[in-house]
Amino acid sequence: MKILVVGGMHGNEPLGIELVKALRNKPINNVDAVFANERAIQQNVRFVDQDLNRTFPGSVNGKTYEQRRAAWLIEKAKHYDIVLDFHNTYCSGNDCCFIGEQAKPILTQTAGFLDLRRVIVANYDCLNKYAKNCISIEISLDSPINSTELWYDRVRLLAQLQQFTTEGVIEKYLFTYRMSLQDRDTYKLKKANLKAFQAIDPALANKLGVRSPAYPIFIGDRFTPYNYGGILEKI
Ligand SMILES: [Zn+2]
Questions:
Q1: What predicted TM-score, i.e. pTM, was given to this entire model?
Q2: What class does CATH assign to 3-169?
Q3: Where do the domains of the chain lie?
Q4: Ligand 1: centre distance to CA 12 (Å)
């Protein structure tokens, strides 16, 4: 299996950045590793001009650094069987992965192999939407699996894999809504004691205009202080 590991899609999320460094120090056969938003990584910020993972497909002649980087990444991704794109969140209990609507079946098998049981289909302008071989891995900063060594090992095993056996039990979700800061204040969301992947009160779901059962993620994530989180529904 030919694998591309992407770190620093968001320049201040450490897991992917450390993993790329580890893979460069100690390379694995059939695995390449790249930094996505190099300028943001250098400055330890999420992005420079705009959020790279909302900028796809981008443009080689784009005005912003991120537009050009997005186009470069899509092109780069074409040369691999699987692209593993790493992220972190401050929200506890939020470990999961993201794929695009047009994702190749190999990605749900990959999710199972990597023991990431929650698979979210994202249709905003993220890399997954344009690279059908890209799975984004989202790990809580306080998670026991937020470990460079652990992911280095899982990548090594995936690269050696000849054939997937069973993907096991996968829970699939659709990303349907972004909770705004206004939602937070209007509906007193801080007092609602939301927990990642635990269905919210149907009355609250109704107020937000989302279908029940509705599952919150990225609640109050300090990496994205300009919104309050996301809402999923099961599919
Ligand atoms: Zn991220």
A1: 0.96
A2: alpha beta
A3: 3-169, 174-234
A4: 8
